[in-house]
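Hi V.,

Quick status before I head out on leave. The structure for the redesign project is tokenized and pasted below; the design run finished overnight.
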């Protein structure tokens, strides 16, 4: 398994529970240092996902699998639901279309007399705790998790692959999964696969202490456009409020900075949804780089030049939401490729799930400060 973000951790978790000898290789010193640890932490239910798309299928599958896994992990979850409130007739039409889409997807929603759409299943978690928890349960079930293990070469060797890491180590495996996020296209190039390309789509967020006497009971979602779901406002599991994200395409995969103009860009929209933010000053900010595919989305399948490598790439903005569904789908692809699986088993009792040393939003902001 190449890549220790939420998708790689979820696949490792799923394979370990099926008795597979699996090793997770993460380039960084910690898991979830990329997009998986710098997002909203919102667990969506797929009410707005388009029909007949692999992304939609896997979001809906993940929603069905999620509750038992969350209970097993014991990570914090705020089951607060979400609401979308249209501001004019055109937006009301868009919200009505979202209601029809949710009905097609089998997702519970309710259209209010004011035209607002209630989505009770939406929730918020700590994305770092979620990722690390999946990896910890995988390790308790027998998986090996290696950090500081950047894959720099992939060598075909008969019916095997040899992965070479930056520290000089070699890992022999029958199949490999490329879930390297922003670096997914670079990993694919190691086997001569140039079928897709990844670029960073920056999303900037601002964190606030709730004003005295104010509460935020639900996630506030904007009416989406064709390009973006827009700026939202949501509560965190540790009682903060967050507004964002922006959506800025860039080329630099190392630029995690928050732009000077991002605050005004976000807050002009956020205050319209939550007037209590008027005059509020952020206590932190952070940027996430979503791994967007050029003219592609959810590139999941065997590499043509190297069928023993499974690409799981261009998971642009729904990795935390869809991770369990993606994992279940990839397990099926690996079985089709000849991997022997056992029946899924329960993880060992009392498996240790680490508690992050600091809030995920603060950790994400510190990465931005180092960039």
């Amino acid at each position: 398994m190449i890549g220790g973000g939420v998708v790689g951790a979820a696949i490792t978790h799923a394979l370990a529970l099926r008795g597979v000898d699996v090793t997770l290789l993460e380039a960084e010193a910690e898991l979830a240092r990329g997009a998986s640890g710098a997002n909203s932490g919102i667990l969506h239910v797929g009410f707005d996902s388009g029909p007949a798309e692999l992304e939609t299928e896997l979001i809906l599958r993940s929603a069905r699998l999620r509750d038992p896994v969350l209970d097993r992990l014991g990570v914090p979850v705020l089951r607060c639901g979400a609401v979308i409130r249209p501001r004019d007739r055109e937006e009301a039409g868009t919200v009505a279309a979202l209601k029809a889409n949710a009905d097609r997807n089998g997702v519970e929603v309710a259209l209010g007399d004011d035209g607002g759409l209630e989505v009770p299943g939406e929730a918020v978690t700590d994305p770092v705790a979620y990722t690390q928890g999946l990896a910890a349960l995988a390790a308790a079930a027998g998986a090996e998790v290696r950090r500081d293990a950047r894959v720099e070469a992939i060598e075909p060797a008969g019916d095997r692959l040899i992965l070479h890491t930056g520290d000089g180590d070699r890992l022999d495996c029958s199949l490999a999964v490329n879930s390297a996020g922003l670096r997914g296209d670079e990993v694919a190039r190691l086997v001569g696969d140039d079928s897709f390309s990844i670029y960073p789509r920056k999303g900037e967020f601002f964190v606030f202490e709730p004003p005295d006497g104010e509460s935020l009971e639900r996630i506030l979602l904007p009416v989406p456009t064709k390009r973006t779901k827009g700026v939202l406002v949501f509560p965190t599991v540790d009682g903060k409020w967050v507004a964002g994200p922006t959506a800025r395409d860039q080329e630099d995969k190392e630029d995690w900075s928050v732009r000077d103009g991002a605050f005004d860009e976000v807050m002009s929209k956020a205050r319209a949804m939550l007037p209590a933010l008027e005059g509020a000053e952020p206590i932190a900010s952070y940027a996430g780089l979503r791994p967007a595919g050029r003219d592609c989305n959810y590139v999941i399948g065997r590499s043509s030049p190297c069928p023993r490598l499974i690409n799981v790439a261009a998971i642009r903005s729904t990795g935390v939401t869809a991770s369990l569904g993606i994992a279940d789908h990839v397990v099926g692809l690996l079985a089709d490729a000849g991997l022997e699986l056992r029946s899924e088993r329960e993880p060992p009792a009392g498996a240790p799930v680490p508690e992050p040393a600091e809030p995920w939003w603060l950790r994400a902001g510190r990465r931005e400060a180092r960039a």
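Above is the designed sequence. The two ends are 27 Å apart (CA to CA).

G. will cover questions while I'm gone.

Best,
W.
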